[in-house]
Structure formats: C-alpha cells, structure tokens
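Consider the following assembly input.
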Amino acid sequence: MSSALRHVFLASLWRRRLATTLSLLAIALGVALGLTVQLIHSAALDEFGRGIRLLNGAADLQALGPRDGFSDALYPMLARSPAVDQASPLLEIEARLPDRDETLKLIGIDLFRVGAVTPALLPMGEDPDERAPASGGQLDALRPDALFLSPAASAHLGLGPGDRLRVQVGTREQTLRIAGGVPGAGVGQRLAVMDIAAAQQTFERIGLITRVDLRLAPGVSRATAQAQLGDRLPPGVALLTPEDASSETLGLSRAYRVNLTMLAAIALLTGGFLVFSTQWLAVVRRRQEFAFLRAIGLDRAELRRGLLAEGGVLGLIGGLLGCLLAYLLTALAFALIGGDLGAGFFRGLAPQVQFEPILTLIYLALGVLAGLGGAWLPAREAARMVPARALRAGDEAEVYRARPRWRTALAALALAALCCLPPPIGGVPVFGYLAVALILTGAILSLPGTTAWAMPRLPAGRSTLWRLARARLTAAPGQTVVAGAGVVASVALAVSMAIMVDSFRGSVDDWLTRLLPADLYLRASDASASGYLDAEAVARVAALPGVAAVRPVRFETLRLREIGGETSGEAGHAMALIARQVRADGGLPLVAGTLQPPTGPSVPTPVWISEAAADRLRLGVGDAVTLPLGEQPHGFQVAGIWRDYARQQGSVVIEIADYRALTNDSRTNDLGLTLTPGTAPEPVMAAIRATLGEQQSEMILPGELRTMVLEVFDRTFLVTYLMEAVAILIGLFGIGTTFAALATSRRKELGILRHLGLRRRQVGTLLATEAALSALVGVAIGLLAGGAIALVLIEVVNRQSFRWSMDLQLPIGPLLIFSLAMILLAAIAARLSGAQAMRQDAVLAVREDW
Amino acid sequence: MKHRRRDALQTILAAALCLGLTLLGGAAAKDFAPVLEGHRLAFPEDNGAHPKYRTEWWYITGWLTDAEGHDRGFQVTFFRVGTGLGADNPSRFAPRQLILAHAAIADPATGHLLHAERAERALDPLSGASVGNTHVWIDDWSLSQENGVYQTTIHSASFDLELTLTPPGPPQLNGRDGFSQKTPDPANASDYYSRPQLAVEGGLRLADQDLRVSGQAWLDHEWSSQILPETAQGWDWIGINLNDGGSLMAFRMRHRDGSTLWAGGTLRHGDEEAQILSPDQLHFEPGRRWQSPRTGAVYPVEWVIEIDGRQLTLSPLMDDQELDGRRSTGAVYWEGATRLLEDGQEIGRGYLEMTGYWRRQTGL
C-alpha cells in the first residue's frame, strides 16, 4: 500500500500542482489567521495576567470603588477588622505626560504595607550621585517627588535615576524625579510607583484611594469576609476577589477575541471546501484510473485511505505552512500594532511572541482535519463506484447527478432559527455562532436543489452555447455543488460581514453625530487620566471671545454591589457614569424613553441608561434605581435607554447639575463649546491654548473626532476586512480550480463539441457561461445566506457579545457590484483555466474513448 | 496567626528599603528642634512623644525568670522618627513621623537572639506615638502607661510578650537634669531619663511554650535631634539594675579609632541621691572578645568599667547576642543581657549595647 500510496495518490497531488498549491494556500491561510489571533491573544493575555497577578499579588480580596477613588478612611477600618490580616492601600492614577501625549500607570503605595500583598511593587532606590548608602538617601522612597519606574516604563520613556518626568494634574504640571526602579515588576509591565501620600498630594487626591488589597486572617473565607465587611462599606465600594476584578477587563476583550476566532474558523472552513472541490474533481478525472486499480486488486478501503491521505497531506503541509506564517504574522503584529489587535484592551503591555506548543498542535490538527474533511466525500464516492461501470467512458456524469437535499437543508435552517433564541453561555454567544454554521450548511445543501429548480426556469434563449450550458447544469447539478460550495461559503461570509460592518459603521456614525452637538471639544486629558478642568478653567474658557456656551461633561465610574436584588457574578463591576446636560442639549441616541422627562419637586431625578446597563441591571423605562454617588445611595428613575457603543460595561447618564448637587464634584473632563455664529474655531483654539497652556489641553473639532473614531473603527475591523478578502480569494480559487479540473475531465465531451463544429473560442465561452451560471446560483444563495448570517450577527452575536443594538443597513450598491464581479470573475477564471484543456487536439480527445 | 505574615512582610520591606535604625538619620537636623540645656523635664507630659525632635525612643531591657528559674533577657523598643517630610501634605498618609519597633529575646537555650521588628508611618488609629502620655503602637504591638504602670504587648512568629512593668519611684533624670551631652560639643545631646528597677510580671510565649515570667527591667526614654557626629564610630552603653535597689547607666561615644570621644553616666545606690558621672570619672576597658560567625564583627563581650576607681566587670548572659539586621533594618549591633560583678560578686543585672563594631553606626 505504501508504494501505491506514494505513486498513485500522493504523486497525483504533484501532477495537479496548481490545484494543490491553491488548496495548500487556502488551508495555510485559514490556519495562519486562526492561530495568529490565538497567539496574539495568548501572549497579550499572558502579559495581562502577569500584570494582574503582579498588581494583585497575594490579595484575597480587594475593595474597589469609583475610578476616582473612595474615602481613605475606609483603609484603617478594613485594616483593623479581625477578619483582615493585612491591608494595603493603593491609589492608582493614569498620569498624563504632557510632553509625550501619553499616559503612565502610576501607583501610590504605602511601602510599609505593600510588601505583604504585592511585594513586586516595592520600589528600589538608586541614587546616581551616591553609591554608598547615605543617610540622605534613606527616606527617598517617601519623598514627595520620588518616582520609581518599572524596567519596561524606564525603557519606554528612556528615563533613569536622576531624570525628571513631567506629569499633568488638572491643567497644571508637576515635575517628578526618577528615584529608582521597581525591579519586581518584570519586563512587560509599564508602571511607576510612588509614596501614597505623595501621590495624593501631587495629583490632588487628598483623602482618596482607589483600592485596598486585603489578606484575610487564617481561617476566614472570602465569602465570610465579604459578608462581614460588605455591610460596613459605603455604597459604591465593593469587595471583589482579584479574579472578579480582573475578569472585568478580560470579559470585555473575550467577546472580541471569540469573534475573531470564529472568523478564522470560517476561513479554515472555506479552505476545507476548496480541498473538497479539488479532490472531488480529481476523483472524477481519475475515475477510470481508480476503476482499473480496483480491477487489478486494490480494495475499496485502500482506495479510500489513499484518497483521504491525499487530503490529509494537503492539510498537514498547509497546516505547517500556516503555523509558520502565524508566528511571522504575530511577530509582525506585535511590532506594528501591539498586543491588542487594534481594539485597545491591553494598552501598556509589551508582550513577546512565545511558542505555544498546544495551540500550534491544535491548529495543525485543524488544518489536517480540513484536508481530511474535504477529501472525505470524494473518497467515499470513489470507493463506492462499481469498477466495471466506471471503466466505461462517460461514466463521470454519474457523480454530478447530485440529489436535492431539501429536507436536510430546511432542517438546518430551522435549527439555525431556533439557535437564535437561547442566551449566551459565559458571555459568549455560542448558539449564535452555531446558527451561523447551520445557515452556511443549509445554504450549501440547498445548492443542487436550487440549481435543478432554477435552470429550467431560465429563459431558453436562442444561442446554442447558452442552451448547452443550461442543459449541462440542469442535468448535472452536482457540478454547481462542487464549484459553488466555495462560492456560497465565501460570498455568505463576505456579504454578512459587509452588511454587519456597514450597519455597525452607519450606526456608529449616526451615534457620533448625535452625541457631538457642540462646535469644538476641549479636554485636559483622557477621562481616565490625571488631567481635568476645574471650575476656574471652565470659567476662563467660557469667558473667551467667540464662545457662546459651554457644555461640561464629567466621566466617572460607579459600582453596584447588587444587581437586580441579587449578588451575581458581575455585581460590583464598574459601570460608566456620565454627567452632562441632557434636557438642554439632547444628543443622547435614545432607543426608548424620553429626553424631556417631567420636572418638579416630587419627580425623581432622571437617569438615562445605556442598553448594556439596561441588560445588566434588568431595568426598563420608568423603573426606579438606586445609584451610589459620593458614597451615598441616591434614588433615580430611568427616563430613557440609549445606545452606547463606547462602553460595553454599561453606562449611566445623569444631568450634570444633579451630579454636582449630589457629589460636590465640580471637575470637568470634556468641555463642549458652542461658538457664536460666524466664529471660526481656529482662533478660539489658539486662545484656549494661550489660556490653559500649550501642552495641557487636547482640542478637537467634532468632525475630526468623528473621523478619528471611524478610523479607529476601521482599524478595529481591519482584521475583518482581511478575512473577507481571504474568503473571496478562496472562493475564486475554488471556481478556477474547479473549472480547470472540469475542463480536463470533460475533454471527450468538449472534443465531440469541436467535431460538431464548435470553435475553440466557443468552447471557452461555453465553459465561461457554465461558470457564470454556477456562480450566479452560488452568489444568489450566498447573498441570501449572507443576509441571514448578518441578521444573526447583528441581532444575536453582537447583541449578546457587546450588548448593543444597531440599525440594519444594506449596502445594496456595493453588494450588487460585488455579486456581478464574482460572477464575471468566475467566468474569467473558468475561461482561463479551461484554456489548457481546449488546446488539445479535438480528434485525439474523442479517440480516447475508443 | 496574624504576626507570621507580618514578619515576612517586614523582612521583604526592609530589605528593599534599608529602613529602620539607619533611617533615623534620614532628615536634616535643621528641620527639628534642638535639645537645649536648661529645659526642665515635666512629668507625666514628658512620658509622651516629642514630635518636634527628630528621633525618640522608649527602650525597655530586662531580665525575665520563669517558674522553673530559667533566666532570659528581653528587649522591647519603640522608635519615633521625624522625617522632615510631608509637613505641607494634608494626606492622612503624610509620612511626617515613622514608628519603628524592635523586640528580642535572649535565651541561653537558643544560643542566639530571637528578634522581630515592625515599621509603619504614624497613621491614626493604626500606629502612632501619643503626646502627653506614654502610648506608642504599631497595630497590635504597643507600649502604654496607665496609672504609672507600663504595659507592652508584642506578637511575632517566634515569640509573644505580654508584660506589665511597675516603676518603684520617680523617673531618674540623666545628665544635667535630663540634658545628656553626647560629645564635647553640647549640640550633640539628648533629653534623657530612665526608669530603672521596673518590676515585671507577665507572659512569654516561645515556640509552643507559654511561660509565666517575672523580673526586673529598665526603660530609657530619650529624644534628640542630633546625637552622633560624623567623627563618631558608635557607642557602648549599659543600664544595670543594682541588687541594692539602685541603678547604673553609663555610656561612651567612640572615635573611629575606638578611643573614647565622650562618656557619661548616672549612678545611684539604694535610696541615695543619684551621682551624675562626668567623662573623667568613667573608664571603659574592653575585655574578652567574641567574633560573630554571621557578620564577622568582633565585640568585646566582657568589660571592666572603672567608676571613680571602682573596678566593675561586665559578664554576658551568653556571648551571641548580636542583632543581625542586615536583611531588615540594615543595622548590626550587640544588645544583650549582662551581669555586673564587683570582686567576683554579682551586684546587678541589666543590658549592654554596643554599636559600630560591624560598620559605622549611621543615624541616631
């Protein structure tokens, strides 16, 4: 068998080099894309996990509150609790670096406390002037300007001991001195450490901390401690396990990761289809060869094994190539876009490419599986033939006589519809993806039936070639299955992504336009960083000539310990709080409720929650909700539900006047400026820079911001676009190889046509027409399937992964052009690949039969 | 066992920071009030902390005897350190004052010191040093005074102490009415009083032994902004409870070459009036030496001390009473239980402290 395997089967792969190469490429691309996504994420997650472990240390529980922190009076209370062995207070700040226009994670620590829980954060002093321990250097770690950089931060900023670093606080600057390092932080974490008192003072956070890490007394369980201490915590402060706290971020990135993996899986599936079509045709072409081999003693099982081996070898080589490519792509991605695939989940990490043996093996196995899977049906078909009949010429037609499989197709589609109903599992829309797979299966299964149904209904026409093509496809609908399966899969994928991304983009665009009513936006830094505008800065800007009105926006976060009356896994996770003008400005893209709720003394304070918040809190319009503001519970009423694409974790909007009355917090993060009519924004921007400082503010015009956000959007979906292109390429490969093989296997038929007087060019046209008709059916089904998949993606997958809705938008023009192009390209591919077959002498071709 | 992890913490922490005793000299003396002669100590106010001065300590040393008659030495020290930092910082974490604590047990059965330490910034109510009365604490380590009786509680991995210490009489002022000059320059001085002959009662846990103990102890309370000049290498100090009910405190500051830079002391016999010893009345003569196998430092563990012609001999409870703080506080010194002999007869028991034998004692 082994020599037969080598000579008969594997050698055949070598003989049809083009088809083999294309199959290899398709599998390699599918494997490469899938593995790259996994490699990048596993490296990023690894580094992220390392960061989490580093920052959490040996903490059993963490007290967490709003982003800007909670009262540090809580720390002694926690530290003295009998349930607590060790308590370490932390103040985390994203410090804006005005000269670099970036931020640095800065952690204020009590160095007498941090060692018990997170020893990796201990600063190590390094005095550049005095090598010997000098009395003056002993207190360095406590000095108000002493900053200690992790190795990664030190390398990134290019700063060492003795250097200065400017940080922004509000709209002012403070200069810190690099006093040493944080050697325990490892090489992948960009962070800085300073004394907690110094951090409170420098960043104007006196009285505030953002976290208390707790180690519990021996014998005290986390649940016991949570129950005991929970009641003594003020509203808005939650006691989470480090796993809970870190799953906040991991949960956000997971949906994105799963989506990408699914796309890669679809690419791989398409690769499998290509193997299927090339193998199928190889089997058809070698039908007599196999019959002969069978006649001289090769048994059924051996034949099947041999053909499966062909597929397996394709899969293996393609898989190996794909794995290699994946590592190259990963390295390239880390070098070019960093570890977060453009989605911004893992900023501040510097992950390294690592060899992942298990992941690699899994993807290699997937490649082999795609090859074997593609070869499975053709092998079964070949093994099933009766040698005596197959030896006769013209028997190939048998294999194209595919039965319609309406029942199975309909069952798949019905099942797909059912799959849209169940909720996600662990935040992943498993059933949604299953529905996508089922729709794809159903679409492909309906191919032969549709072809058989559609062809007789095409106008008969007067052209001989048209009639020939139509007759051929009506009689052998299996041919379209072979040629069309890849087309259906790739068109469905491309179309669904196109519709989904277009809908998403359109919705985001609309959302942005409504959310940005002002003429100019001003901020001191990103809302999570240390810059902000105080009341005085806002007043100065408002007083500038040309400024008609200002709209301050304050961003905070809040934590609800109980969700819907029960403590669920997500309880205590942060939610965004946005304080802004709503009634006066509108600008919230509502999906339910009103922007103008009734006012009056007895009416509860209104709150507008995002779709994600409505999901998480299980709230509807008119419901009452209690939110912790300034460590006090306050009652609100849901006035509306709005669409928020920016904050997956959910967001809550309240009137800024209400917010300030309840919290006494007068800081502003973003300031929208309405200019007096006829005022150009540029002079106003110059005036603001003169007022607040050249580097201390960031300004943007709504148009620019819109462009920027959409750019980020496009970058995020770059991977998607890449996948689409690959899918289309694979689909076209499929048509090309199919028709090349078809033309070869139909040499005799084409020879007869030549004898009957068809010119070579006309045979080419015949093949092109057949291809175009096959593609037409494939594209039509692909369009329908793509539309259905897009609906599932929008209504199920996105809704469940990201908890937001979008308006369906059909890019009809582009889809039409795309469809026509596919059909045309299919015709050209068939015409080109058939050319070789037509070069042969017609007489010789016919004589082969006798 | 709350203290186990705490000790691990202290080790890690101090290793990274070289805090502790060496840190006592962190800030410049000019940030603090100078100790001036003529200032009258007033009690009970001066039992409390003096945050205007740079460093301050409550230093308890003594001998404990258990029910079976075994003798052990013990030391409990609380330091308050002004850092000169954070004066303008309204943060509750502002590191204006640090509280450090050391505790050690000298048990001949062990052969070396058991010791533990803690460090915190003063942060009410977790740690601090009260003004006006003796109350200094770090979490569950504390020293306080109520109705004249001192109480101290220490928890660590290797031992726990829970002691009451009752003074028999009023504080013993050292130097000139509590002004204790440390070098020829009166700028190097401290306010200094002692509470000798403290009657000790309480409990000592060692590994899994819970012992009832009693004995005599000595408390020093001293504060200053500047003691040790650049030219000084270290000091030798004794605090001895005499069997006749009296007390002897003597110290000398050493030059880098080992010669005496300054000396002083207070000697009281029974109920007699205390005698303030001037540098020329005191002579320290080192005797038998012992080399530490850990640090290689050589300490004179036996001494002859001449006071106005009287020859007194110091003999240690055990040789190895070196406190190796290289991995924690960065300070290495010998602090041990000692007998005082005259003509071969034990006339008192107390503690001997020797610093600057490993490297120059910085700070203080």
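Confidence is low (pLDDT under 50) at residues 128-137, 564-569 of chain A. Ask yourself how this observation constrains the way the partners meet.
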